[in-house]
Specification:
four-stranded mixed sheet, 134 residues, 40% strand, 2,3-Dihydroxybiphenyl 1,2-Dioxygenase, domain 1
Length: 134
């Protein structure tokens, strides 16, 4: 099957409090804003991967549980560095960095202001594709 190419990927999440999400994703995670659409802001995560954060009045509250179905995984070689960086900024982790033998990864978990679970992860499996720079 000869499919046309996919050039980029944008994942959208929703929040009641766009200001808190902006402060977190720009100020704490340092993601670069590439497009401000007013009620939606799109950030570059890596290469052609983007995260869109949009205000919606019907977005689930941070404790509503619907966010439990979504995990935003940020892949890096320096999980411990990210853990130190975020902990120094007052971020509370649901799980500190540890080795997960089931998936052969090293990772930690935290939540964004809207309640979405964020995993910071390093693949230890050598068959995982290297990024564009490496």
């Amino acid at each position: 099957m000869n499919c046309p190419p996919i050039d980029q990927c944008v994942t959208f999440i929703y929040t009641h409090d766009l200001s808190a999400s902006i402060a977190f994703y720009e100020g704490v995670l340092g993601l670069a804003l590439v497009l401000d659409q007013g009620v939606c802001r799109i950030y570059r995560v890596a290469g052609g991967a983007y995260l869109g954060i949009c205000h919606r009045d019907d977005a689930p509250a941070p404790d509503a549980g619907r966010q439990r179905d979504v995990i935003l995984t940020l892949v890096t070689h320096d999980v411990d560095g990210w853990h130190r960086h975020l902990a120094a900024r007052g971020i509370i982790f649901e799980q500190p960095p540890l080795y997960n033998p089931r998936f052969n990864i090293y990772h930690c978990f935290l939540r964004d202001p809207a309640g979405y679970l964020i995993e910071i992860q390093r693949f230890l499996d050598p068959s995982w594709p290297a990024d564009e720079s490496g």
